[in-house]
Write a structure and sequence with these properties.
single chain, 282 residues, alpha/beta, eight-stranded mixed β-sheet, two-stranded antiparallel ribbon, 21% strand, globular
């Protein structure tokens, strides 16, 4: 089956979407992909597409959506803020459930998965708190917090200014400008103060469990043999388990494709993700 491309009407324009219909006679679940931040989105498009196709073949309906100001959706990156992105995700979840074209009994049995990559993990948590419905989570390379991601992003500006012969600004100075509401260009992206502050405040804290038990499939890529999940990752996983989630942690070997200068694949991650979501014995 070929994915269906369309524009979803939303706040401040339209959002470009790709719907991958589930193969087979039974839809095992609904999956919404939530892309990472800024240039990481472009670097991970191929992996997101490969995984979406793999999940569709395994019986999942998968929706990919470009958030406001990203990809082929309405607006510029500088128009975005964290809350609008969260609203985009909630809107997409409702659309996916309403347009799954499933019998009522099958729709009720098909779990909703929020699949986030990097900053997309943080967005999925923020959206789940406003969704009001039960959902499961699929995390790819989850960051410990938005503050860490923002700091990494601002370092690109510091490095870029140095290469261009401009005076170097300390991270503290950049943060102060953000707190004063000043937008700034970072690596070709106009970053609004609202978006920066929303990212900085985002945490990977588990939302309340709604209804029955919910799952979290946590996947990290490691590049060295005999390397286990990060210490911060272990702390977060424990926090989610203590909050009532059934958590499975996976580490796979492969390249850091979200930061590679060239397009690279991580087939082990695709296989591990598909296996993690596929019911036993299928």
């Amino acid at each position: 089956m070929q994915p269906e491309a369309f524009f979803l009407p939303a706040k401040n324009g339209q959002r470009f979407c790709l719907l991958h219909p589930a193969h087979g006679q039974t839809t095992r679940g609904l999956v919404l992909y939530i892309h990472p931040f800024a240039e990481e989105m472009n670097k991970t498009r191929r992996m997101a597409a490969l995984q979406s196709r793999a999940l569709a073949k395994a019986g999942y309906a998968v929706l990919q959506m470009d958030l406001l100001g990203c990809g082929d959706s309405s607006g510029d990156f500088g128009d975005a803020n964290w809350q609008i992105w969260v609203e985009d995700i909630v809107h997409a979840c409702h659309w996916l459930r309403g347009h799954a074209r499933l019998p009522k009994a099958e729709l009720e049995a098909a779990p909703l998965w929020l699949w986030g990559l990097r900053a997309g993990c943080l967005l999925s948590v923020s959206a789940a708190k406003q969704l009001g419905n039960a959902c499961n989570f699929l995390f790819w390379q989850p960051p410990p917090s938005g503050k860490v991601l923002l700091q990494q992003f601002l370092r690109l500006k510091v490095a870029g200014d140095m290469l261009n012969g401009k005076s170097k600004e300390a991270l503290e100075t950049l943060r102060r400008k953000i707190s004063n509401g000043t937008p700034m260009e970072v690596a070709g992206y106009m970053l609004s103060a609202e978006l920066a502050m929303g990212l900085e405040q985002a945490e990977l804290a588990p939302p309340p469990v709604i209804g029955g038990p919910s799952r979290l499939e946590w996947l990290e890529i490691i590049s060295q043999e005999n390397t286990c999940a990060s210490a911060i990752g272990k702390q977060k996983i424990l926090q989610w388990r203590q909050s009532g989630y059934g958590v499975n942690s996976h580490t796979v070997h492969g390249p850091a494709f979200w930061q590679s200068s060239e397009s690279v694949d991580a087939p082990a991650l695709i296989a591990a993700t598909t296996a993690a979501l596929t019911p036993p014995g299928v």
